[in-house]
Amino acid sequence: MQLISPLLLSIVCVIILIDLVPLGKDWLSRIHIGRYQDKQVWNKSITRIGAKWLNTTPKIKVTDNTRWVVIDMLKGNYTKHAIQHWQEASLLLGLSEYLKTNKDQEVQRELMKFLSLKFDQNGQWIKMPKEVDGAILAYAVITLSFINPDLYKKAFDSTWAMIQEHIGDEGTVQYRKFMKNYRYVDTIGFICPFLVAYGTRYQKKECVELAVKQIKAYEEYGMLEQHFIPSHAYQVENKAPLGLYGWGRGLGWFAIGLIDAWNELPKDHEYKPVLEESVKKFAKAAIAFQQDSGNWNWTVARGECRPDSSTTATLGWFLLNAAKIEDISTPCLDSADRAIQYLMRVTRRNGEVDFSQGDTKDIGIYSLLFNILPFTQGFCIRLMNSKNNPKVV
């Protein structure tokens, strides 16, 4: 009995420490947060972290639990060892944008290392993505400026075949095959930029048409008509909206899917003006929900909700590119600048952008944790380096 008591006490202490150590690390890392004043210094700092994370990514928490997390660890539910494709894609897109205006051999080596881990010598996936979020990673590769994307055409062809396998009976793409009756806003961001880039590059008109159909169907059935903000999803058969109208990252998914698809279309393409009208309408809607401090909240329509850096980074990217449209250029540029200022204020001293909402659990079930997220880091890099590129706006 004398041995059992000290042993039990030691176990309890270890369990408590497991709970406290992550909280303590976050607290320490947030000391002197938001001290960046110079945008170029900030850009170098966030890019350095992005390059580090591309091939050595931080573990992403699956659960929102902050107490008794040892139980989640034992079940294997505490963190994800493999980062999702959409987070990898964001880092790749951001670093690719950085290399357009910076000759950085170290960052380029990290990107080439990443490609060698994802694709074989024939340009095919080493591990073929089975879900549609793999398409945004394929998009990040097809738009790389310092390589010949045709080297990876086999992987792009396979990605297109995978998307086709997810097309439902009514002609739009499913988020998951086992969720045939729902259409998620996330899917807009996952597939539409790739479909347009792949379709225009390899003369596959049906790919572009599918992307436009996916966007326009969501506008018809998944948007709050008066305010033009998306619901999390909609039901295919009865067209009923599902989840929250105005979920921040949902706006972000719609935004990047729309703006990158529009950007990829040639100026004389028949669908360019079609998507341009959508860009104008959504830009006005997004600006209307921006907070005075430059951010968007995780529920954009509620000022009382917590700010979300992932929403702010993606909508900032959208508005910076929407500023190419003369009619809305001035308010879009102003809004994007305010977003950048906010993101600088929530960046840790080591360059990690903080306070992004955690991974969503299901329709209507949203994370209550706000921390670092590779997806946000990538879009901050993409936003800032696009801002630095005089060819963009």
TrEMBL record:
Q: Please give the biological process terms from Gene Ontology that the record holds.
A: carbohydrate metabolic process
Keywords, sorted A to Z = Hydrolase
Q: Which InterPro entries match?
A: 6-hairpin_glycosidase_sf, 6hp_glycosidase-like_sf, Glyco_hydro_88, PolySaccharide_Degr_Enz
Matches recorded under Pfam families:
Glyco_hydro_88
Could you give a GO molecular-function term held by this entry?
A: hydrolase activity
**Does Hydrolase count among this protein's keywords?**
yes
* Signal sequence, start to end: none
Query: Gene3D superfamilies, from UniProt?
Result: 1.50.10.10
- Its name, as the record gives it, is Unsaturated rhamnogalacturonyl hydrolase
Q: What is the lineage of its organism?
A: Bacteria, Bacillati, Bacillota, Bacilli, Bacillales
